[in-house]
Amino acid sequence: MIQSSPARFALLIFSALILVWTALLSLPLATRAGTVTPLADAVFTAVSAICVTGLTTLDMASHWSLFGDIVILAGLQIGGIGVLTLASILGLTVTRRLGLRQRLLAASDTNPARAVKGASESQAVGLGEIGGLLAAVALSLLIIEAALTLLITPRLLAAGYDIWHALWYGFYLAASAFTNTGFVPMPSGLEPFATDPYMLGVLAIGVFLGSIGFPVIFALYRFVTRSGERSRHRRLGLHTKLTLTTTIAFVIVGWLAIAGLEFDNPATFGEETFWQTMMSSGYMSVMTRSGGLGVVDPLDMNGSTMLVLDMLMFVGGGSASTAGGIKVTTIAVLFLAAYAEARGYQDIQVFDRRIPVEVLRLAVSIVIWGSSIVAVATIAIMHLTKLPLDVVLFEVISAFGTCGLSAGVSEELPDAGKYILSATMWAGRVGTVTLAAAVAATSRRRMFRLPEERPIVG
């Protein structure tokens, strides 16, 4: 299975990790009260941690013990890195070498489209660069989370926490931000920092860096370190340019949309100054990348704003990142295809490069299956809870996009609803990747072509 379908192997290991984490969180040792956590809640929390979502059915600060918090923290770190990437890093650490099989495993974790027969190896990260990518993953995780911890801890000390709690909460928030999970360990949550530009700025930077993806971080590192060289390695690749351009565009559009729709809402930004409104709306826009560390209750927002957040969460962050959603490059390819069709171009072109039709097929498949998963889960939970569409849709898209922003539905769900939302988080984290690999693996060459006939479209 490892050789024939690395994506299926990853899915198997991912699901096995969820079972292990469910068992660990079900132990009395994992709770402050020393009691067994109900199975539905343990499953939901395990899936939310491994899938770096951040939704919860329990009070994170009061329910889990230190052991439970450590288990959850370890789960979100593993989920953020990626199962096959972590396995390749551990293998490289033990054996001091990276064979072809390990390179293919790590490569399939970042781009399942490599399974396409006859596909060009003109990828964002070539097989020869996988070792550098794995080093970049490990170093960026350590360096960025350490830097975020050092920036957050003094602010927590100033807020009145003792040194040990400030360090623990600082590291927890740093990991939660960079992995785009959204868990908050403090009893009062982020409410005391809702108007603090320093804390919100640090968290937003952490979420943004995690959402652009490890290949982009690796490409930017190579671009900076080789600034004096005149070679093809100094050029930023198409994936990096598309990811950064689309991510920044969605952040700005979401920023302006949230500010424009909520500036006169007394329950959210109506009582704030112009600069506070711009800061809060910009922060919320970044959190829809998949961060989930919200400071505004979505139920207090206008319905139009919630719909904007739905769209932003559904898109999510960059490919091979800690963020979820259908990915910004997927939506970028679809927009570029629509633009090429409107202009009458035969090829999809951007940044002096041509995008193959196979990539468009994958993008269309991911959007269709993602929309279908969201629709089925929304209908099922609405039927179980009788809650209105806008609230349930918000929660389901947040689960599918592994975002973690909540409209309060998760805590009110019956056990059946918790399992449905858990399956939605699982599908949002691994389903689209597995689908992409399945579509790629089933691409076959035929010795004949059927007669062409055009249906009426549109």
UniProtKB/TrEMBL annotation:
One of its GO terms (cellular component) is plasma membrane. It is found in: Cell membrane. It is a multi-pass membrane protein. This is TrkH family potassium uptake protein. The keyword Transport applies. One of its GO terms (biological process) is metal ion transport. The chain crosses the membrane at residues 42-58, 70-94, 130-154, 166-186, 198-221, 242-261, 311-338, 359-384, 419-441. One of its GO terms (molecular function) is monoatomic cation transmembrane transporter activity. InterPro entries: Cat_transpt (IPR003445). It comes from the Bacteria. Keywords: Cell membrane, Ion transport, Membrane, Transmembrane, Transmembrane helix, Transport.
